[in-house]
Amino acid sequence: MDRTRLSKRMSRALRHDPGRVGLVLDDAGWTSLEALCRALGVSAADVEDVVRHGSKQRYELVERRIRARYGHSLPGHVDLPPSDPPPVLFHGTGADAVATILRDGLHAGGRQYVHLSPSEATAREVGARHGRPVVLTVDARAAAADGAVFRRGNDDTWLTDDLAPRYLRPT
After folding, report:
1. CATH of residue 113
2. pLDDT tens digits for 70-95?
3. Which long-range contacts (CB under 8 A, 24 or more apart) does 42-45 make?
4. What are the residues facing 163 on neighbouring strands?
């Protein structure tokens, strides 16, 4: 089984459209490993391989239950514990969105959280998905001091709710 292809299928089922494959998630985004395997027509070993070796640490597998850790476009929030962010994080976007973001701030849009990166290079890669990439520097220390809650999605992804423009500046 192609790990990347299966990860994309798991992402769609666990983050965006579980009903499309007949999957039901609980309020915290969990389903049984067996239900996911049936829905996708794959083995538990295949899914476990994606969880264990996936480059983005998108999934949690605990006691034969699985969920996507972040990136959901479904209602509700996956409960990840708050964590102290590094002083500075980065957000990649397309050049066309910069003026609006600097005026209105960052908003989750169709996702549950705003996604941030500790790496400027990773943020630039994300921004390239939206046209000419622009990286915004996020003053995470000041935002956290003012009450913003940050969660660690994985080593490359930090999550938070909306951020006001005062915490953002072009890099």
Report:
1. 3.20.170.30
2. 765 656 656 678 999 999 999 999 99
3. 42/1, 42/6
4. 106
- Taking only Cα atoms into account, the Rg of the chain, rounded to an integer number of angstroms, comes to 17
**Residue 39 CA: distances (Å) to CA of 10, 12, 145:** 10, 12, 44
Give the pairing type, strands 88-94 and 114-116: unpaired
Burial class (CB in 10 A: 0-12, 13-18, 19+), 120: middle
Q: What is the pLDDT of residue 108?
A: 86
Helix ranges, the chain (H): 3-11, 33-40, 44-53, 98-104, 120-128, 140-145
- Does pLDDT of 19 surpass 60? yes
Same-domain check for residues 104 and 164? yes
